[in-house]
Design a protein that fits this description.
With about 130 residues, the chain is an alpha+beta fold. The protein folds into two domains: about 80 residues, 3-Layer(aba) Sandwich (Rossmann fold), CATH 3.40.50; about 50 residues, no CATH class. The chain has four helices and five strands. The strands form two sheets. The chain has a three-stranded antiparallel sheet, with helices on one face. Strands 1-2 form a two-stranded parallel ribbon. Helix 1 runs parallel beside helix 2 and helix 3 packs across helix 4. The termini are far apart.
């Protein structure tokens, strides 16, 4: 798309990109993205992630809220897991080896001791 494109005629990913670009233009220090890739195609999702990486490279902070842990893991440098509105885990990227570690931790929260083979993310801080 171009600066002259009509936003209503853009794809979902491009519209998300315009919203992120608007926040950058307005020099927002914190950009909150709540499920920004919901209902987007893989191509549109890739475009949104491209914009997110650009924002991060510019030094701005992004609060990325998402349920697709693999997507979140690909772009985040810090993780916070909530359980019924309370912080259950905080961890830096260096403390979490894989998206599966986060998934396993969340499954353990949902089913304490009920699913075999689960473990919490190594080195991460768990909060009660």
């Amino acid at each position: 798309f171009t600066p002259h494109s009509i936003v209503g005629q853009l794809s979902g990913g491009e519209r998300q990109g315009v919203a992120i670009a608007r926040a950058i233009y307005k020099q927002a220090e914190l950009i909150i993205l709540d499920e920004p890739t919901t209902a987007l195609s893989l191509t549109e999702t890739a475009k949104v992630f491209h914009f997110v990486r650009q924002v991060r490279a510019s030094g701005r902070s992004i609060l990325f809220i998402g349920h697709n842990i693999h997507h979140v893991f690909d772009i985040a440098d810090r993780f916070v897991v909530l359980d019924r509105g309370k912080v259950a885990l905080t961890a830096d990227r260096s403390e979490v080896k894989s998206a599966d570690d986060l998934i396993n931790f969340m499954e353990e929260i949902a089913h304490p001791g009920g699913l075999p083979g689960l473990h919490e993310a190594g080195g991460a801080e768990q909060r009660a």
